Structures are given as structure tokens and as C-alpha cells.
Amino acid sequence: MDGRSARFCRLVFAGHLWPILCLARIAVTLAGAMLYFIEQCLNGIQLGMLLFLLAAGLTLIFGIMDLVNLAHGSLYMIGAYFAATFAALTGSFIAGAVLALVATLLVGMAVEVIAIRRLYGRDHLDHVLGTFGLILFFNELVRLIWGPAGMTLPLPNQMLTAVQVLPGVYYPAYRIVIIATTLVVALLLYLLVMRTRIGMLIRAGASNREMVSALGINIKLLYTLVFGLGAALAGFAGLMQAPILTVQIGMGENILILAFVVIIIGGIGSIRGAFVASIIVGLIDTVGRAFIPDILRLFLSNNAASTLGPSLSSMMIYMLMAAILVFRPEGLFPAASK
Amino acid sequence: MIKTMLKAGVAAGALLALTAGAAVPQGKTIKIGFISTFSGPVAAIGNDMRNSFELGLDHLGRKLGGLPVEVIYEDDGFKPEVGLQKTQKLIESDKVDFVVGYIWSNVLLASIKPLVDSKTFTVITNAGASQVAGELCSPYVFSTSWNNDQTPQAVGLYMNQKGVKTAFLIGPNYAAGKDMLAGVASTFKGQILGQELTRWPDQLDFSAELSKARAAKPDAIFAFYPGGPGIQFITQYAQSGLKGQIPLYTAFTLDELSIPRLKELAVGIPGAQEWVNDLPNETNKKYVADYKAKYKSSPSFYGAQTYDAAALLDSVVAGVKGDLSNKDAMRKEAEKANFKSVRGNFKYGHNHMPIQNFYLQDVVKQGDDYVLKTVATIVENDVDKHADKCPMK
Amino acid sequence: MTAWLTPRNAVAVVLVALLALLPFYASVTGNYFLMSMFTRILILAMAAVSLNLIMGFGGMVSFGHAAYIGIGGYVVGILAKEGIGSGFVQWPLALAVSGLFALGVGALSLRTRGVYFIMITLAFAQMVYYVAIGLDRYGGDDGLTIHKRSTFDGVIDLSNRTLFYYLCFALLLAMVYLVWRIVNSRFGMVIQGARSNDRRMRAIGFATFRYKLTCFVIAGVMCGLAGALLANHTNFVSPAMMHWTRSGDLIVMAVLGGMGSAFGPVIGAIAFLLLEEGLSRVTEYTNIILGPLLLLVALYARGGIDGLLARVHRG
Fold this sequence. Notes:
heterotrimer, A: mainly alpha, two-stranded antiparallel sheet, B: Rossmann fold, Rossmann fold, 41% helix
């Protein structure tokens, strides 16, 4: 909304005219800004895609192994560091990304075998404590290996541009790439879980662990594979996000909390739920940040509105989660009962 | 059993280590407490400040006014409450003679009360919270940097020169961010189409704000993002394709720490600064050359301000002949600013803020490297606008 | 050896004695920072003790306990900023607001269990955290400096650091005693019974929801008091007081010390904060040791330090 309509609204309020007039003016402005709204929605969807990559692994691990893995964000960070390192070594963004994906998968499986495996079947509190310890460990390890300064993963030059997606709507090319590749990954994941033998085992493992091992399946190996898959997804999120956010220590910690919110809203263990909830959370965060300050400016001083706006949109995500937990504790898409 | 004893041992050891600090006799060594950020995503700034302070002490023969020096470096962890704790520790436990440092305005604002209450002689080498220049000014607190809004004011003036008619402002939601946006708004004569404050320091994706700026169709965007987030902002600005469309003006966003990582993306984005590495005075040439020789990288303005702090302290201790109990004499010495600054001319206003020039700087490619160059002087002998609010004479 | 003189109790007695004597040591050596640091430890220990009441004995793992520290602190800070400096107003209000918040959060959260409970308490704490960031008048993200400690005219002068230390010390001991009394009362038995089997407790006629809610509110009020004290101690409040990692720290303190006893979290708070401080002096890379240590505690030392001490006694 432009400054003119804000002034108009203040005038209306000051003159005690009908607030209806003001709302009508807002509506006109909003209609005019529809294309802008679409652009902000794309921003929200892009954040949602990132959240989905993290949440998918998290929800699989949570649903199947019943493990609360706070260290998931560390794998996201490690993926980004690997990508920056390999891209610099090979001189190619794509080669760097592929190598990083494989490396993160291996690290994830190694972490599972060395540490995580021992936490299965324990109290959730033990998971929180143990994986919190892993976060501290990985942060320091990365600092030892790569130094404190962080790294950059530069994009190829042809990516440094905006593409016209609709008449009048320009959108950064690289963010379109993120949205598209994540959709492909989501589809592949869906096919893997719903159409393959290993996916069948994963689903069976989620609903009845004892039964699967009774059938003579090597459940230990299955768990290691699932954890590795989750790690690779987190690493993929990290490497895709690296060119936007740069690579630094602790980059996975704040986004991790949002990913947890996503899997709670979506329903633990449900990939479909994670997908829908990711987009909802991404949209609330971004669209809220874009519009709430302007709405607040109608009532508050510029500074107060600028301060309150961003925190209000962050708060809305948690309000949504609390509401879901109160009224629909199993989430939007509850996985099959255990 | 062994585990228990181990644990008890570690805890007891920690306790011993804590108490041992107090037992060291004062002697004639000058104790300096140095607070900056040495961990996390902005550690590069703290390291640059520490390097420059060490270099400054090397140049002074590791002595201030002839007395040997001991520096205690403390990490504020980028957090106001940790900075406050560390400040209290330096004052109460280490009983330092001087406190030096502070990158962040919000850390400084949290820590200023114990510094003023204990009358600790303090040299702020970066943070420029406007309250400290104004109503919170204090007899024993000096700055070798600037007040937050001075640099953006210079940018605002430059935008006027370039004929910018409309602008969109973006900055982080903390003390300095608010000061910066207010600063540019105070000198910019055109219309401000919008201003956005982003969550600090955890929000690193500026897609919503950049979309908003694009929709507002301004002549120019002004941004303030120090440290790592500056790299992210410039990167995303370039990725959004805005770089060719809407020019960006910055304050404290491009420096020697971020340019090596941004490379080509930083070229052609102007900023203002009170110090640039190519300022043509002898002190500066020696500082920059020796820094490069010792640390294999280029110093930033954070370092330059801290290097000046070492020289200022030297002049103070020499001026009072090592009598650190006479605080008022020390204050008078410091007010003279009797040292050679890397900025060339340097003098203090009555509120203990420097009165200094601000330069226009630009990023250029030099061989394989990208460096900052002085282009012009925007303002000369600038006095911050909060000085009137400071009751000190 | 009498039944009383177990290693557990011996450690507790020695710790209490050392804490009681600390101000003398500080005044002899002139190291007042040590006292200031331990004042902070005592205050955070109170928060850990209160968390332990619901988490250790009630099985309610709150991942948002730092919110009460923030609420207690902000009530003091906001009132001080608005010119109301009397502790007789500030403190009761801090406790009341914390209690009301706990009542609201508890009433909604206690419908859930397990990891859902963890997440819903986190959600409410995050809301308070963002409210504090959004308060432009009270400093927003930068926090708020409190220029004067709460005044209790004619009763106690909080600006006297030794008195303030002893006040915190006394309040901590009172809280530990209170928790011990609660746990060993009929009320406490119901709470512990509900932890191990809620359905059975309800079947034999206890309205466990009400019991748990009361317990949750008591813990909230206790932690709110810790918040008011912390604001007075540091003369500063900021949203960072309630960042989710601070709630995590409180959980770590309680688990590290041992959730099985009322005094355990005190040991945990001291050990955790001293480890943090001590290791940071030994090595720059503190967490490469602290991290795996936490993992080991989670894997092999479930009772925490207190549990280890108890095991020593059993042989």
C-alpha cells in the first residue's frame, strides 16, 4: 500500500468519518497491488519449499524411529559447507551440489551408526539433550575445519537476474529454480514412499515397528537408510539455500524450530502434511512480514509499526501451531495410528 | 565413582580458575579489557579489531605511556546481555584500567550503566548509539568511531547530489538500524516511499522486503547491514535482478571483510565512511602496510578505529605520566586528542565524539582483488546532531 | 554411618555451606564479581528448581520455561520505566502475571502430552518472545536498562550486593524446601502418580487435570520470581532472556543435576554454568567438549549428577 492511502485513512479516522470508506480505499489499493501480492506469495512458497526439504526428513525420522532430532539443522549446515567447498574445488555449481549431497548422506549415516542409534527407544527428553549436544559439537567442528568466517557459494552469472513470470511480475531466476527442483524432489519422495518396496517398509515401520522386524527385515539397516535419506534432504535444503543466505555456523538453528512447527502442524510422520504445512507457514511468515507493518501504520507511529510488524508475523505462526495443538492435536494430516 | 570425581574435579577446577584471576597483583601493568564479538557469524569483525589493537600495541612497543600492558579479550557473543556480563566481569573481577571495544549499539547500550557508574575510562571503537552521544554522554567515555546517524547522513547528502528524488529504506530492527534510517531521512531531500525494519540478527532472507522495494518503484534503495548479513543483502539484491534497475546506496554494508566474499557483486555500490584504506597520511600508510604484512589481509574501518584507540590511550597515559588515579586529568588529556590518527585530522567535540570528515567510497577491481577507493569528500568536520543533548561542557 | 549421611546429602550440605560462606570469601579477596556471578547462578537455579517440579516430578516437559523469567523480568522493567520503583508493587505483580500466564498456557497445553506438550509450551514462549521484540517503547530487540533496583523501603536495600546475594540464597533454599514439601504431600503423590499412569489416577477418582494445572501455575510463579530477581540483578531485561535456547539451557540444568530430587537442579545449574564459564577459559572450542558430554549424560547418566551420587552410595 502506498503512503497516499495510509494518509487518506488517517484523515478518515481523524475526521470520524465512516471507517467503511477507509476499508474501501484499502480494497482498491489491494486490488491494484494484486500482482505485487502474487510476488509476495511466491516468496512465501519459496520459503515453504525450503521448510519442506527440512521437514520431510525430520518427520520421517520422527515418525519411523520416534526420534526428536534437534541436530537436523546441523546436517543442513554441513550440506551447505560441503557444497561451497566442492563447488570451489570443481569449479562447477552442479558438480559441487551432487558431491555435497552424497557426502551429507554419508555423514548422516555415520552419525546414525555412531550416536543416534543409541538413542532409539529412549525418552524424548534424552533425545533433546543428546542431539542438542550434537548441535554444539557440529558447530565447533565446522569452526575447526572451515574457520569462523563462513563461506559463499556464488551462483553462475546467468542466474543473477529476474524472470518475468506473469505480465508485470518479475521474480529472481534462482528462487524459481529452488521452487521447481523442490517440487521434483517432493514428487520423487512421494513415489519412493508410495510405490517402492523400501517405501512400503518405511510406511510399515512407521505404523508398526515390531511387525516389520518380525518379518525378518533388517530394521537396523532400514533405520540407518532412513536417517541418511533425511540427512541428504536436509543437506539438499542447505546447499540450495547457500547461494541466498551464505554459509555460516549455526545457520540451521532458527530454521530448525520452524521445521518442527511444520511437522507438528502437518502431523508427525506425514510427508503430505509436511508439504501442506510448509507452504502455510512459509506464506504466513512472508506475506505477514510484507503486509502487517503497513496495516499497523494506520494505527501506530511509523517506528512502532516497523518494530511490531515483523514480530507479529512471526508470532502468528506459533499461534497457528498452538491452535492446531489444542483443537487437532494430531496435526492436519495424522499419519496412520501406531 | 570415577565419573563423579572427574565431574567434581572439573567443577572445582573451574572455580579455581575463576578465583585465580583476582589474585594477580596489580603492579605497574596497565590492564585493558577489550570487548568485541569473537564467535559466531560476525566474528570476522571482532578479529579485525583485535588484530588492529595488537598491531597498535606492537607499534607502541607493547607499552602505553611507557607502562607495560595486559589486554583481556572478552567475547560478547553478539548478545547485549552477554556483553553486559562481560563488562561487569572486567570492571569487578579484573579491575581493568580501561575498557575498549564494542561493535554493536545494543550491546553498548546494555553495558553503559556499569561503565558510567564505576567511572571506568572507556574508549568505544565502533558502536555509535545516538543516546551515548546525547543524553547518556559521560565524562570518561570516549569514542574513536562516530555516531550512528552521521554516516547515513553523508549518504543522504550524496543521494541529493546524484539527483535521487525517491528512496526506499531497509535496515535491521535494532538500535543502530533505527538510527541509520533516521539519519538518512534527516538529510535526504527527496521523498521516502517506504521503510522496512527486519528481524535482527536471525532474519537473513530479504525477499519480502526486496519485493516491496521493487513495487514501490523508487529512484534508489538505501540499506544498512553490517557484518555477514550485509553479504546476504547484497547477494540477494543482485539475484533479484534489481542491480541494473534501482541503484543501491549503503552505510556499513561494504567493507574489507565482505568485499572479498562478494567480489563482482559489490562493484559499483557506493557507501560513505570516515576512513578508507587509501587515505593519504603517513600513519595510515604504515598501519595498512603493516597490517597486510602481518595478517595477510586488508584492515577494515572497524580495525582502523581500534588502532586509533591504542594511540589515544597512549597519549592519555603519557599525558598524566602514568597516574591512572587522576581521572579528570586523564579526561582532559583525552579531550586534546593528542595523537596521530589514521584519519589524518582528529578532534573531539564536547560530547567526546570525533569531529571528522566523511568520504564517498566505491568498490573497484584492482588486478585480481576488489578494493575500496576514496572517491570524494562528502562532508568536512561533521558534528553529530545529538551533541546538543549532551549536558557536558 | 547414619542413613542421613549419604554422599548425596553430604554434597548438598557442603554446597549449601560453601554458598553461604561465599560473600565472606568475596569480601576478603575483594572479588565481588564472583559473588555477582553466583547471584546469577542462584537465580537460574531457582528457575531450574521450578522447572524440575513440573518436569521431573510431574512429567510435564516444558520447552518454554524461560518465558516466565522474561515475564517476571519485564514486569519489573516496564514498571521501573514507567516510574513505579516500589518492589511492593513490582514483585507481587510480576508473580501474578507469571501465574496468570501459566494458568492460560497450562489450561490449553495440558490437554496434550508427550512431544506435543513440548511443542505447545515452546509455541507460547515464542509468542511472548516476539511480543517483547515488538515493544518499541520498551526497547524492542535491544532490551531495556533498569536504572534502579526495586525499592523495599524499611525492609531491605537491594542495592547492597551482599544482602541481595543472601536474599537470592534464602529464596532458593525456600523454593527447594517448598518443592520438597509439595512432592512429599498428598498433592505431590497425585502429580507423580499422574506422571506414571494418568488414566489409572483418573480411574480412582482424582481430577488429575486440576492437580497438574495447579502444579504448573506454582512452577510458573516460582520462575516469575526468578525473573524479577534476574532483572534486579542485571539491571537489564531483553527478549534474549526468553529465547528458546534459554529454555533448553534450563532443561539441561535440571537433567544434568538430576530430576529425581528437589535439590538436584541446584547442582545442575552450578555445574552447567561453571562448566560453561570454566571451559571457556581453558579452550576457545568449549563446545567440542561440552557437546559430547551432554550426549554422554543423555546416554549413560540418566539420573544426572544426583543420580550418580545416589549410585555411589548403593555401591
